[in-house]
């Protein structure tokens, strides 16, 4: 049967584009899961770093408490100093327990993402590290073409475009070749018969053209579906640009903030040393020691949190670019350009 009006061709195009959209949807889901896994992993390593800080703080606060108790024995420390030291120590212990709970939950989330039973999955503690992935100075926008969600939206638009062609072809008769006459139509078997049958031909031609507007409605629906997929495609692309810009900005700002926070931590560490010396010499009370030690711990935790956020931003930027900025496999697309109605 010849495809005189392109109905078969456009149906094949629509089905191919739809299948490619489905394949890219699988890739989009996989990329999303990989991004979520990376975020959870870096959050777990952030918890590891905070736990290490808090464990060191607990040790230091325990020594401070012991020192204060000894000073009390010699009459150079008050009961309030001991209470302050105890409060500081127990607060740090409570914070450590809270971080351990968060880490356990992240570990369970990672186990589920990789298909493991949470109770049978363990990740040993490791340091967060300093060198989070940093993007190049310039990132070509063409990398966004690798995003599976963009490929999904583009293939859906291509499929909808082909469906318009299918709906348009439905307005024309479906002719098939015949060995007897050369042309035959199931609805108009006498289309090219003798002239004295023209009246019959007229009625048969009218029948398929009048269907109470069904084919016209199908065409309108196909066009509306195409317009919707194009609008969705545009929105997906705009959202992709936003994702990239958000995470690029986050990385740049967090990098500067980490440097500032590191300077603050160094200053707080020097303050702790000086205040401890002053306390041992009896020139300041223990409250000053508690204040400076708490400020140091808060600053250290803030620095770790910022570095963790930088790792997360890097992972999310990689996902926003479809898997990285060094090139990679393109999404599933048709090799020839699709016609658009």
Specify the CATH homologous superfamily: Outer membrane efflux proteins (OEP)
Overall shape:
elongated
Q: What's the number of domains?
A: 1
Q: Give the second-level CATH assignment, the architecture.
A: Up-down Bundle
Q: Given this structure, which CATH class is correct?
A: Mainly Alpha
Largest sheet: none
The unreliable regions are: 176-208, 334-341
> Using only CA atoms, what is the Rg?
35 Å
Extended strand count: 0
End-to-end separation in angstroms reads 25 Å
**Helix/strand-derived class?**
mainly alpha
Features:
disordered C terminus; about 350 residues; Outer membrane efflux proteins (OEP); mainly alpha; 6 helices
Structural description of this entry:
There is one protein chain. By secondary structure, this protein is mostly helical. It has one domain (7-172, 197-320): Outer membrane efflux proteins (OEP), CATH 1.20.1600.10. Helix content is 70%, strand content 0%. The chain has six helices and no strands. Helix 1 packs antiparallel against helix 3 (148-169), helix 1 packs antiparallel against helix 6 (286-320) and helix 2 (79-113) packs parallel to helix 6 (286-320). InterPro entries: MdtP/NodT-like (IPR010131), OMP_efflux (IPR003423). GO terms for molecular function: efflux transmembrane transporter activity. One of its GO terms (cellular component) is membrane. This is Outer membrane protein OprM.
């Amino acid at each position: 049967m010849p495809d005189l009006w392109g109905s078969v061709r456009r149906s094949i195009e629509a089905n191919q584009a739809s299948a490619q959209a489905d394949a890219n949807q699988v890739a989009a889901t996989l990329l999303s899961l990989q991004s979520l896994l990376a975020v959870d992993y870096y959050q777990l390593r952030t918890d590891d770093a905070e736990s290490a800080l808090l464990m060191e703080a607990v040790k230091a606060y325990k020594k401070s408490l012991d020192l204060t108790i000894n000073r009390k024995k010699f009459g150079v420390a008050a009961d309030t100093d001991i209470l302050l030291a105890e409060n500081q120590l127990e607060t740090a212990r409570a914070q450590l327990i809270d971080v351990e709970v968060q880490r356990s939950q992240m570990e369970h989330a990672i186990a589920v993402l990789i298909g493991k039973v949470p109770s049978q999955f363990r990740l040993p503690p490791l340091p967060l590290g300093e060198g989070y992935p940093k993007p190049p100075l310039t990132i070509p926008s063409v990398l966004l073409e690798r995003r599976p969600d963009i490929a999904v939206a583009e293939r859906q638009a291509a499929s909808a475009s082909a469906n318009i062609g299918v709906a348009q072809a439905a307005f024309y008769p479906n002719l098939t070749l015949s060995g007897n006459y050369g042309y035959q139509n199931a609805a108009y078997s006498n289309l090219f018969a003798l002239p004295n049958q023209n009246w019959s031909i007229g009625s048969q031609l009218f029948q398929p053209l009048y269907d109470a507007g069904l084919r016209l409605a199908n065409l309108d629906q196909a066009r509306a579906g195409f317009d919707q997929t194009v609008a969705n495609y545009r929105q997906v692309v705009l959202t992709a640009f936003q994702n990239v810009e958000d995470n690029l900005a986050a990385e740049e700002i967090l990098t500067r903030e980490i440097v500032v926070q590191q300077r603050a931590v160094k200053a707080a560490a020097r303050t702790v040393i000086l205040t401890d010396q002053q306390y041992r010499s009896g020139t300041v009370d223990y409250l000053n020691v508690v204040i400076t030690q708490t400020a140091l711990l808060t600053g250290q935790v803030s620095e770790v949190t910022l570095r963790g956020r930088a790792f997360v931003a890097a992972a999310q930027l990689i996902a926003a670019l479809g898997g990285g900025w060094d090139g990679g496999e393109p999404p599933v697309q048709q090799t020839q350009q699709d016609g658009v109605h």
